[in-house]
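Let us practice reading a record.
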Amino acid sequence: LMVDSGNLTIPQCTNYSDIEIDLEELKKFNNVDYNFCSQYVIYSFYLEELNNHINIISPNIQDPIYIGHTRGDLTSLKGFIPEKYINLSKQVYTQNIGRDWGGFFQILSNIPNHKEITVLSHVKKSPFHSKIYTKKWVQEISIPISINKNALISKYMHENPSIGIIASKLHRDYGIGKNYLNYHKLCDILEIPLEYREINYLAGSFFIIRTSILLDFFSKLNLQLFKNDSDDSFDATLAHSAERAIFSYARSKKFKLAWI
């Protein structure tokens, strides 16, 4: 097995674990009955941008939406989300720990009855990029999620249990940079074998995942790990490690990853 000792970017596992699917293949599932197997998990540190975020990702109107935020004084999400989603949405107060992945951890811990599929996203407001760039980025990275507004992706995953994650190929990434040490520390905790640590992931936490993978992933972690993460530099936090490691973890559990 050839493994690059630096970024681990030489293909080791993705050449047989990753596939691409096209829209024509997905359209076949329009006629499949939907069994209400999905849940939406959104971390919203920036509540003022939540309404725009939901309009872009267009959640399936039949699925529950769990929205995590840090406003402990907030009694209702009214005014922060489109009216048609009010009755579907449940707010979860989260401590401001671990950025989006610390938020996801806390939201998942507060869902009483999980669905088979989780549609994961976070409200984006980057200090490093303009609003125009950020909007374009969100639209591109959330393509599989917005396709799911009619439960198309959920039905596809339900009928194909070997698929673990579906993500946008437009933001597939292979970089590690300053995250090298944190990434491998996290992989050690998660017991991901070296041959599955290839850096091949979605640069941004907007994807659709089998809930069992996510719960298993988080069961090996705790919030304290994120709390101890004092490095606030660009792309070097534990949250940035987690967005890479979740793809490695799914591959290590022999799931296929699909890119659209």
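A brief commentary: Confidence is low (pLDDT under 50) at residues 1-5.
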